[in-house]
Amino acid sequence: MGKGLLYVISGPSGAGKGTICKRILEELDIDLSISMTTRKPREGEVDGVNYYFVSREEFQERIEADGFLEYAQVYENFYGTPKQMVMEQLAKGRDVLLEIDTQGALNVKKAYPEGVAIFLLPPSLEELRKRLTGRGTETPEAVELRLSKTLNEISCMTEYDYCVVNDDLDVAVSHVVSIMKAEHFKVSRGVHDLMKRYEEER
Amino acid sequence: MGKGLLYVISGPSGAGKGTICKRILEELDIDLSISMTTRKPREGEVDGVNYYFVSREEFQERIEADGFLEYAQVYENFYGTPKQMVMEQLAKGRDVLLEIDTQGALNVKKAYPEGVAIFLLPPSLEELRKRLTGRGTETPEAVELRLSKTLNEISCMTEYDYCVVNDDLDVAVSHVVSIMKAEHFKVSRGVHDLMKRYEEER
Q: What is the ipTM for the molecules in this complex?
């Protein structure tokens, strides 16, 4: 049994990361990486399901012990991807899915280059504007700010391994599933066990 | 519209190259590369379908004009992959499928490194022995010779991009299809057109 693969799904806000990851979890036998945060649980959020909720002190200690694949501070709260859990799952041969913002994705890719980084794109800025406006949670100014940020994020696309435009959800999911399956057959991921098996059979 | 991709499907005799390629042609919108040969057409073989049948002189001229992605002499006959036709199809944005023996595949990969080389493997040497014996066309000695050759071929597997074990045909086909689809989303194949589109929209 080989090591599992780490898939990092990212992209601008409104590209459909969350929806696509939910579908991936339904279609493939894969574990979701749960983030750790210092923010308080919201109504209905469960520790170990939505997030691992920890104190600021616990988070700080973990940072100092190099216990995160990546972490970031957003306003007064910290968010991070606990390294040990991901590594243990991969060592057991389990594939791990990580849904994360573009800054976090690039940090994970730096910390773990064998990870497969997939960038999701909205079909156009116009469509992204519609999606963000449709959520009804953001002011027009905030939407324009997000669009500017999106262009910056798109300029970092070359740091990723794959890029999928999320125009039709079903099609985008099938593309991502193909990518995730294909990665398992890469010779660069190691075929020595396989080669040995044939030699020994001889 | 980007350039098409060249997929090189190879593997030892008995790995199921031909059957899998036939299925790929049914499932995907892709062109098959037709080889050129100096051997005489057999009963029922059609020029431009099974092979391009040419004279030894024509073949020789093409070799001298660097007109092959790869070619080889097998006993008294020559076989080769005409370069121009493949390149024209790729330039038109068409994907091209090339089914070829392992020596030819490595030569194509050298001549055209952007090609996607997929190595097909039988599930075991024992299973391969059964398949080769089942064909009823080879003596037991010839089968053993093929098995030895297979081990040599397997030792070159690391030169390929992907490796798929053909245990169950349907499963193997779906793996190869995933690989072929996924390759289109590789950032390394170029996302500048895509990036430009978003910038211009802004």
A: 0.88
